[in-house]
Every structure is written in structure tokens, then in C-alpha cells.
Amino acid sequence: MNEMTRPSALLGPEDPAPVGKVEGSQTSPFLLICDHAGNAVPAALRDLGLPAAELERHIAIDRGALQVARRLADRLAAPLIFQRYSRLVIDCNRRPKALDSIPAVSDGTEVVANRELDEAGRRARLTEILLPYHRCIEEALEARAAARQATLLVSVHSFTPELRARPTARPWHLGLCWGHDRRFNDAVLAALEKQEPDLPLGRNEPYAVDMEHDYSIPLHAEARNLPYVEFEMRQDLLEGPEAQEAWAERLERALRQAADDFLRGGE
Predict the structure, then answer these.
(1) Does the pLDDT of residue 1 top 50, yes or no?
(2) What is the average pLDDT value for the chain, to the nearest integer?
(3) Phi first, then psi: what are they for 80, rounded to 5°?
(4) How far is it, in rounded angstroms, from Cα 218 to Cα 209?
(5) Per the omega criterion (within 30 degrees of 0), is the bond before 79 cis?
(6) Which end of the chain is more exposed for a tag (fewer CB within 10 A), N or C?
(7) What domain range includes position 176?
(8) Structural domain tally of the chain?
(9) According to the model, what pLDDT value does residue 5 have?
(10) Are residues 148 and 228 in contact, defined by beta-carbon separation less than 8 angstroms?
(11) pTM summary value
């Protein structure tokens, strides 16, 4: 029985499935994930009581990230797994016990529907949205391991140029983020510095991987000793198909060079 045919306490028949996939080639060394790809809200939650404009902000979705991830997956012939629901419903890159897993306030916006959420409502979001997404990633990684397919995990995010709550400029065009393991991040950084020496790069900026509260990289990569890179692209540079294609081409070049160097050099 698949996730969408199980009895549901939250998702209705008209709601989209939480997990989206691009199959790609299983022989590609890359597996792409996009935790904040969508801004869907289950119909039962009535847009969380928010106006439509709030659901288009960075608090609800990593704007442009999925469009770049799809193009990048196509260029690399790589599988892509992405989450369709808004991070305001439940943040699929936060462990369930993290305070901002289901935020009551996000960058100055109060989410009343989250503040008043009871335990049953919290559990429904966890079991119907977050867990199916991460189970899909786990299954993909396990299948690749069983097939002895080397895997480089690529996590695709985007960030806003400025936060309302903390209006400080974020000058980086691209950030690379890591936790304990920076092996493949370093290889990608080296490729980017060689290919585009003038590109404003952030090193663990605007975020670092939070090993205690983040979900995807700590559990799917670090815990498996799996090489990875996490990209953060600035959202105002991702507007429109041409910009998104240019970013996909940029990341493809860096990833291919880094993979050649990294896999040839051994892990």
C-alpha cells in the first residue's frame, strides 16, 4: 500500500503527494534532493490562515530552487527527490523536535495555525509529509548501496538576499554548507574558484549545516559517511528560466569537475 492510499488524517484526495521525483539514471554518481521545493498547503489547513503573498515568500518555499534542481538533474542525468509541501506546514530539513520544525513565527510573520497546533495535528504532518519524503531518500540510498553505486549527495536550496527580522545584507551569490564532513564541499569549492574566481562564494554562509537540528544532511549523508554538497543560491539571482538555466549550467560544470577529482582521488 503506498503513502497516498493509506487512511489519512490530513491529506485529502485533491492534495498532491508529498514526494516528487525525477527518475534520472541510477548509474549517475549524483543523487539530488530539494527539501523546500514547494509551497503546497493541505486543503484542510486553509492556507494556514495566511494571505497568498506570504506563501510566495522565502518563509514558505526556497524560491527558484526546484527549477534549478530540475534543470541540473536533467544535465547530470541524475535522480532528484523533492518535497512539495511548504516548510511552514512542516520543515522537511528540521528534526521533528526542533523549535522551527513547525514554526509559529517565521521571519516576522506569525503563523497562527501553527501556534495553536495540537499534538494530533503535529503528528499528522510528520507522518504524512515529512516521513514519506525522507523514507523515499533512504530507499534510494539503500538501493544505490546495494547496487554498489557510488553516490554524491547534492542538496539544493536558495536563500533570500535579506531577512525582514534581521535586515543585514547577504552578499554571497552562492553558499556551500557543511557539518563535520567537508570532503566533497571542498572539491566543489575548488572547482568553482578555478572556473569562476569572481563569483561571491559563501563558506558555511548564509548557513552552516546544523548537526543537531537539521535533518537531511546529518541523517542521510553524515550518518552514512556519504560525500555531499549543500548549495544555497541567492533567490534574486534565480528569477526566470534563463537565470535558472545559467545556474544549472554553472553547478553542473563545478559538480562534474569536483566528481572527477574526488572519485579519481578516492574517498
Answers:
(1) no
(2) 94
(3) -135, 135
(4) 8
(5) no
(6) N
(7) 3-265
(8) 1
(9) 45
(10) no
(11) 0.94
Grid coordinates of 267: 574517498
Confidence band, pLDDT 50/70/90 cuts, at residue 168: confident
Strands (E), 111-198: 152-159, 174-177
Q: Which of 38, 166, 35 is nearest to 101 (CA)?
A: 35
Distance CA 176, CA 189 (A): 8
All 3 cell numbers of residue 143? 538501493
Residue 66 cell numbers, joined: 526546484
Distance CA 161, CA 216 (A): 23
Q: How many residues does the chain have?
A: 267
For range 63-84, the mean pLDDT: 98
* Residues 74-132 pLDDT 10s: 999 999 999 999 999 999 999 999 999 999 999 999 998 999 899 999 999 999 999 99
The single residue listed with the C-alpha cell 484542510 is 44
Asked if the peptide bond before residue 161 counts as cis, ω within 30 degrees of 0, the response is no
Q: Residue 131's CB: how many other CB atoms inside 10 A?
A: 16
Q: What are phi and psi of 251, to 5 degrees?
A: -70, -35
